[in-house]
Fold this protein.
Amino acid sequence: MRQVLSIPAGETIQNIKVYNVHAYPHPRNYEKSEYITFRAPKGGKMDMLYKVIHEIVLDPRKNNIENDLTHLDNDAKDRILGYIHARKATRFGFEKEDKDYMFYLLKEEEPLSHTPRPKGKNTAGHTYYTYGEITSGKE
C-alpha cells in the first residue's frame, strides 16, 4: 500500500507551490512516505499530489548554506535557496531557532482536481491516506 502524508500547509503553501520544496523542524515523527500532499487553510482542500524525490537536513539560518548543497544539481540548489529566502520574508519564517529543518524536494505527481479534504474539521496535525483514497476522485 502506498502511503500519502498529508500536512496542513497554512501560510507556507504558496512557497511550496512555487519552489516544490517543503521544510519542517527536524526531527518530527512523520512516517516515511513516498508521497505528500498539503492541506490549504480554511477547509483543508488538497489540490496536488507530490512525490518526495530528495530529503536533506539543513539549518536554514546558517550563513553560506550553499556549501551544504554542493552535492545537489543547480535546479535543486536554486529551489531550496529560493524557498528559504521566500519563507524568511514571511511572518512564518523558520520559527524554531534551535532546530535544523528537514527539506523535501518535491515533484508534482498528480493534480487533485476533485480537491479532497479531511472529513469534518481540518486538523492542525498531519495525517495519512492511501494513494487510492487521495486519487479516488471523491471529495
Summary: Helices lie at 13-19, 74-88, 131-135. The domain at 3-135 is CATH 2.30.130 (Archaeosine Trna-guanine Transglycosylase; Chain: A, domain 4). The longest helix spans residues 74-88. The two ends are 20 Å apart (CA to CA).
